[in-house]
């Protein structure tokens, strides 16, 4: 084999190796995309939602001036991508405020089946529903009542696709309530990772 033919053969071999490497890397990327659930974000695209749930009311046995702050988590088991971020944030909130006199509850979207992740099991008390829950526009969502039983906040946990303390609406509300300040709910337009709550949406 002449030197020219040998060089051409080596170039062809190198191109084949590069092509094979690209195919392998693409395959790994697809597997990781599917495994971590990012492919599901097409189903739950970032969207603007108007939250105005001031008509929410706790059941009589939980309402009133109990001296406890009450947090109700609204979730839909099928909203997997959004739940993953919010679930981790909720777990952090429960741990952070464990000595602040706060009770945590959960309301699952009617007609759905599923369970909270293991790291939230036993940390929230399940409620079948609460009055006004049918008007919630999207989930995950949260409602917070102060120690006197007044609704202080109802809406999303945060703004944006990723839910954490950096963009959270919840910690500032809880901090004010724990400090004894008065907070009143107001309507909110938020853009983030939300799934429809109402069956006709």
Overview in brief:
The chain is of the alpha/beta class and 201 residues long. It has helices spanning 3-35, 80-96, 170-178; strands at 47-51, 69-75, 102-108, 125-127, 138-139, 141-145, 151-155, 188-192, 195-196.
Structural features:
201 residues, elongated, 3 helices, alpha/beta, 20% strand, single chain, 29% helix, two-stranded antiparallel sheet
Q: Explain this structure to me?
A:
Helix content is 29%, strand content 20%. The protein is built from 3 helices and 9 strands, in the order αββαβββββαββ. A hairpin with a 5-residue loop joins β6 and β7. The protein is elongated, with a radius of gyration of 24 Å. Strands 4-3-2-6-7 form a 5-stranded mixed β-sheet, covered by helices on one side. It has a two-stranded antiparallel ribbon with strand order 1-8. A two-stranded antiparallel ribbon has the order 5-9. It is of the alpha/beta class.
